[in-house]
Every structure is written in structure tokens, then in C-alpha cells.
Write a structure and sequence with these properties.
The structure holds 3 protein chains of 3 kinds. Chain A is an alpha/beta fold. Chain A has helices at residues 21-30, 65-82, 107-115, 126-132, 138-143, 147-155, 171-184, 202-209, 250-255, 284-297, 315-329, 342-345, 352-366; strands at 6-14, 36-37, 51-53, 94-99, 162-165, 190-198, 238-249, 262-271, 306-308, 338-339, 368-369, 392-393, 398-405, 409-416. In chain A, the strands form 2 sheets. In chain A, strands 1, 2, 3, 4, 5, 6, 7, 8, 9, 10, 13 and 14 form a 12-stranded mixed sheet that branches. In chain A, strands 11-12 form a two-stranded antiparallel sheet. In chain B, strands 7-4-8-9-1-10-14-13-11-12 form a 10-stranded mixed sheet, sandwiched between helices. By secondary structure, chain C is mainly alpha-helical. Chain C is globular and about 40 Å long. The chains are: A alpha/beta, B alpha/beta, C mainly alpha. The interface between A and B is large, with 78 and 79 residues.
Amino acid sequence: MDRREVWITGVGIVCAHGDDVATVAEAQREGRSGAVALADSFDTTHFDVLAACRVPDADPAIADLKADFGLRAARAAISDAFGEDAIDCRPDLVGVHLASGLVSTPVTEAEDELLASMDAEGRYQHAAAAARLADPSPWRARHFTDRVNRTLTTDYGIRGPSLVNHGACAASAVAIGLGARWIERGTSDVVLAGGYESMIHPFGVLSFGMLGALSERQDCSPAEVSRPFDATRDGFVIGEGGAVLVLEDARRARARGARCWGRVLGMGTSMDAYRVTAPAPDGHGAVAAMRQALSKAGLGPDEIDYINAHGTGTPLNDATETAAVKQVFGGKGEAPPMSSSKSALGHSVAAAGAVEAVLCLLAMRDGVIPPTLNLTHPDPDCDLDCVPLEAREAELTHVVSNSFGFGGVNCSLALGATP
Amino acid sequence: MRRVAITNVGAVGPFGASLDEFLDWWKAGRPALARAIESIDEPWLPTELACEVPFWKPRVHLPDRKAIKLMTPRVQFGVTTALQAWGSGVDDTIAMLPSADRRGMFTGAGVPVDEEWTFRDAVETSIVDETFDVVRFAEKGQDLLNPLWLVKSLTNNILAFTAKQLDLQGDNDNFEAGAAGPLLALGSAARSVACDRMEVALAGGADSLVTVEDLLVMDRHGLFAPDAPRTLLPSQGGAFARLEPGSRGQFGVLAFASRMAPLAKDVAPPATHFPPDNVEEALDLATVEVWHQAKMLGIKDSQATQIRGPRLPDGPGDIDLWTTLGDPGAGAGGLLLAAAWALRFTDKDTRPIEIAAAGPSGEVAVALLGTLP
Amino acid sequence: MGAETDGTVLDEQEVYRRVVDAFCEALGLDEDEVELTSLVIDDLGAESLDFLDIAFRLERAFGIKIPRGEIQRTAEQKTGEAFEVEGKLTDAGAKALAEALPEAPQDRIQPGFPVRDIPRLFTVETFQSLVLKLLAEKQQVA
């Protein structure tokens, strides 16, 4: 059976640059940072974290912020693809494959839900906990991480497969790759694929901070904290948001005169089988993922024009990723330019792969390679062309986007420009 | 497309910590396994009875002793059964194994629900004037939180720890779809082996409903009341199967299909991992699809043994496991694989075996196992 | 937690017992597998993440606060001038580190030793000494 071609016919994005595709593209071209002071979100005394890449209009009153990002991105993508708030396709041929994240416990909930379980002396009481676990509790609802899928399938009458991927920081890239497979083999004609995340709250920041994964830099402005591939990098900046792509069978899309944003050409996934929170030093998992994506796409390394790196800005990731890219694409001068969008938008964890896939589509459409911000002291271990500081014009036909996650999960997507 | 054989199964549950103990329980007529709860040492519990894995000692089963601290019980069960399914017999000399990038793993796992308990001490310390104080939480509270708590709560830990132990570097996915999850994993693993992407793949899942928060929630929904219309016996455990390219006559995966049950617009988030009430239509559609695939292989649907996951309508000739085994959440999907193995190799049942399970959002998965044609 | 250690001076035996406990719990070891001279990475199998866990358990067992990177910082402060150049110990750096880690295998602490490998020199005694130092400081404050 021939693989069907996968077009991307709609995109929706919510990130620190906003939720409007034109604004996001402009910010990328101008090399703007989306970082603001974390202290704008809550009192950060004793937190040792300066910056965060917040969605600008995020309403803290919304109990489940990450689901809100996911729904906003999905609705925008549907409108973008079909010109209206409805999916023009037989319901059982529409699928949903999204990714959502790790622990999400905003502090407002900690107050309401945990305090309700305390007795007068401030001790946790089981009986009180049981009494407050009433249905429908927002806390419980959040444990059902397919909430966005449920809302979308009911609101749009979707009857095809609906899955949530939990591949940590690689999750939404995996969701896009597997969603594309549904189209390739004819399970679905239209798939909503992407992910969403919000961890800019005290528990979320602490969870990564206590592991030493976040930058603790305080001696600069928030915009200067995220420094992927720089010798002075010391961790990532936390981001948030959501992004959803409408994937569609190309023949169907052509027939209905849909606009093509680009194509999903191939996905590679692998496991490091090394450690839960550190990449294998030789980068073998990342190498396998990139090679597999290229082979699925039927492309050679020399046909890739740009790599959107995982590029978190942790000391380990960037050096390992550079070494892995060299193994696949060759060393300095041979490998294509590579940059990290996390220098501007932070690391939006489960949403990152989908957000960066949208950024790649914009880069191909506009012929602009987004820069790696704050890369002023190149690390000798990260000596590829990382497009420092300023965007660069270039014709981009094929790009690779990398996403690597906790648990040693790796995913690379090969994307193509509009044919 | 290659044929896909199931060459081994590992199982852990209230019957014991091995497939042999599962088969012994099966041969004994599947007697009731409920006992007084022992693993939770809390003064207040809404029920006294549950089906726990007896005498569970993770260090006996998990060679990486250091990793155990990062595994919740459900992850310990999952990794244990995956290692069992992988096996350690003479076939597994390194020289005969496919390379690491041709070894895959697909899991169905429950949602970690114990975060609240992780935070308990830290939150208690952070109360100032009867309100939660963020500054105090950062100053004093975080000292009471183990810095590795995030790692322990990762949803893909069964996959991560097994992959590390067995050096699995190939195709992978982690489905969170209640009891349907492990069957979705089976479907993906079978496809991966059939399409020649993987040379060997593990598929299955494990879970535990014997946790403080699960018990509290179930109680809140009246599931332990003596006159409750729907009752639930909390259980734990799961199973994994090892899939490899097969040949005619071997036991293996014949067909697989999944469908979504439609949800009403105003449907509330599920109270528990129960599938919605209206899964029957999706179950019928998936079953028809599975038999359509089977017919193309020349298999007739007149003779099949059915086993279904908890809370699904009984089919004709359905075998009931859950009344005596309890409900192990997502682990039920895994244990369907162990039950199919028992039917085939203990009961010598050579008919096709139809297994089905459903998840809380209406995910329905059906697989047909049997003699490869 | 802290309450147990407040006001009472722990004898060295008790400190050692609690230190060993922390290592056993963090690394999944039996008591007889942990010795004062055990190298934490090479003998006991710790990974970088485990150091966070070990520090957490020691903090709770003794009611102390262990600043991250404390051991290395002590050595750096002693050198005054350059401790390392391009990630390798200088002559002065090696000397200071050897003094800061008297229990570590001294023959391995040479100029040129990679700074990122310093944790490989840590033994159980390194942590015990740190705990004793922090307990003494706490006593003084009290």
C-alpha cells in the first residue's frame, strides 16, 4: 500500500509571542525574546529563577490554563484550515492526537483544594480530603489528561481515533508524527495533532528547579537568561503554550482547494535506554531519531536546509545534541544551520515539539531562519552554525525539528515546504 | 506484512508475581482474591478489602535496585512484567538478539494520582494565617519535597525504566486510555513488527487502584456502599507480552481494531476510570472490523472465546475475570493478554480468542489472538 | 526532622549510622555495602541526580541545609587565584582540592584533572565530614 502524502492545512499557536500567526512570524524574524520576569506571575522570593516565557494574555482566573491553550490553538487551526469553526470531513475519518504534560497544579488550586483538607492546626486530614473530592472537582478533572480531546471530539462531532501522548518533552512532536501516520495509511483523512502545556506556577517551576534544570542566572534581564549553545548557559527558561496542526490527506486537500502550509515527510522515534533525566552522552538515541526521520522522508542529510534544535540551554543537552547532529549531518561547514527557538520562547515542555513545528512552517514560508538569541560566547562543544542573534534569509525546502524528552524519548520530524 | 507471534507473557497481580502463579490461579478456577489491605498504612481508609499483590518485594523482581525509589507501585508492576515477558532463557544470548534499535516497547499506563500526597508536608509547612504562602513554600516547603518527585511522577516511566534495563531503543509509545491502553499498545506493537520496523516488541500495561487517592475518590462516588448499583473491588497488577515475527501455527496476533464511543456534549469528566455507558456501538464496530480482517485471513467467526475488560457488557461465551480478580485499572488490559495465554496453553483452547477493553473517554480496543494461518 | 537534632549533640557513631542510612535509601543498597571509604559514584553507583536525593535525605536526617556545590566551593575559596583553566584543575586548584578532600584518593587529584569529574572523588566520608561541619556550625549559632 502506498503511503499517502500528508499536508498541513491549518495551524494554531499560543505562545509567549501571542496567539496570532503573523505576530509570531514577525517576532521570529526580528529576533525578539518572549521572556518576562517570573516575578510578574507570583512572588519569587527564594525561587532563584528570574525569567519565564508567559503567554501574554493568559488569564490566571482560568483553572486549567494548559487546556485553555490547547483548545485555543486547536480552534484557531480548525478555522485556519476550513475557513469556519467546523471540520469539513466525514466524522469517523477525523482523528485527534494531542500531547499534554507533566504535573500541572496551579497555586490557586493548592490553596483551595489542599487547604480544604487541612484541619484547624494545619494538619492534612484524610476524612476532609475525602469530603472535598466531590464531583466534578477541577483537580480530578485535570487528572484526565485527555480533557482537550474530549472537548474537541464532542464540540466538533469527531468520531475517529482520539489519543493523548505522554512522551514528556518530545510528546507533541510524537503526536504529530503518529497523527501523520494515520493519514499515510488511510485511518484518517484529517487529524488534529499537537500539544499544550502550562507549568509557570510555583509547583511547576520548583519541579524543574529542584532538579537543577532551570537557569538560575540573575545578573541580566529576563530576555537574556535563555542561552542555548552559549558557553555560559546554565539551564532552560520555562515557557508555556500550545500548538495544533491540521494534518490532511494531500489529495483530499488539493481537491477542496485547501491552502498548504507544508508537509510532514517523516518522523523518527527512539529511546536512549540510558537515564531517565539525562541524554546518553554519545547521543545515539538522537542520532537514530534523526536518521529514521530522514529515511522515512527519503531525504539525504545534504537535502536538509535547517535544523530546529531541541536546544534547551542545559549544559548537557546542547553539547550532546551538537555531537549527534554532527554524526548525522557532518561537522562545521557540512551540517545545515541549526538554531534554538527556546532562546526566545523558553521550553514549553509537552507543547514544545508542536510549537516548534509551527515555527518551522513559518520559517519555510517566509524564507527566514530564526536566530538563537543570546549566543554571544559560543561553546567549543557547540561549534555548529547556530545562527547567533539575528535571523537569516534563506530558501528552506526541507527542515528537521528535534524534540528529546525525560525518560530518554527522542523524536525528530522532517517537514517540507509547500510544494 | 509479517505474521506476529506472541512468544512470552509476564504477569503480576493479586494472584502472585509471575505468570506461573496466574496460571495456577486460573487452573484452580479463578478463586476470589480479595483480602484486607496491607500496603497502605493510613489510619483512615474507606474500605478494608482490596486485591493486592501479595508479599510484594520489588527488590526480588527488579535488578536495578537504585531505580526502585523512582518507581510508584504501578511502575514497579509494569517494569517487572515487562522484564518477565522479555525472558532470560538461553534464546537471549546477546549474539542472537536483534540490535537495540530493532527492539521496541508500547505501554498502557494509568495516570499517577498521588501528587497531592507528595506535597503534603511541604504544603503544611507553608500555611501562614490559614492561607497558603508561596514565599514560605519556596523558603521552607521545598526543603520537605524530595527533589526527584517530578521524575517519579513521569507518566512514561514503565517505558523509560524497562527500556534502560533491556536496552530497547526502537519504536515506542505510551497510551493513557484506561484498560484500553495496553490493547492499543498491543495493536501498535503488532503493526510495528508486522511492518518490519521492529524485530521484537513488548506490549502491555500495569496499574494500581489500591492508592489512597483512588480509594478516596471511589468512596466519594459511593462505590463501597453496600447497596451501590455499581461496585468496585480495587485491585492492582498487569501483564506484558513479547511480540516477534511468527510463522504458521504459532500463537499470535490475528487482528486489531479500535474505535471511539461518541460522548454527549454535556458529559462531565469521568468520576473514575469507568468507561462511559454507551461504548456498545463502538465495541460492535471494532469487533466487526476485527472479524473483517480475520475473514481475509480465512478465519471464521463462528468459534471464538471472548474475554472482555471490566465494565464492558458480557459477550456470548464471555469469561469473567474481574469479579474475583478485582479491577486493576489500566492493568486489566494487560491481564487480558495473560488470560489469553492461559486459555491457549493451559486450557489448550485452539479457537481464536477475542479480547476487548474500554477506557474512560470511550476508547475501545479489540484484538483477536490465535493460531497464525 | 530537625527537632531530633535540636539541642542534642549527636555522637559520631550516630552521625555515621544516619549517613549510611541516607546512602542506603537513596541508592537502594544494604548497610553492609556502604563503607566510609566507598567512592560514591564508582563504588556505590550514584548518578548526578542521586546527589540531589542524598543531600535531601541528609538534610532531613540532621536538620541541616546543604548548599549545592558546597564541597567544590570550599576548595575554590582556598585557592584564591585560578582554581581551574578551561575545565582543568590548576596546580593551586589541585592542591586546594586535595586539602578540601583529605579522604579522597589523593593520587588522583593532579593538575589537569577535569573539574566536571570532581564528584567522582567524593566518598561517604566526604559527606560525613560535611554533615559534621554543618552540625558544628549549627551548634555554634545555637
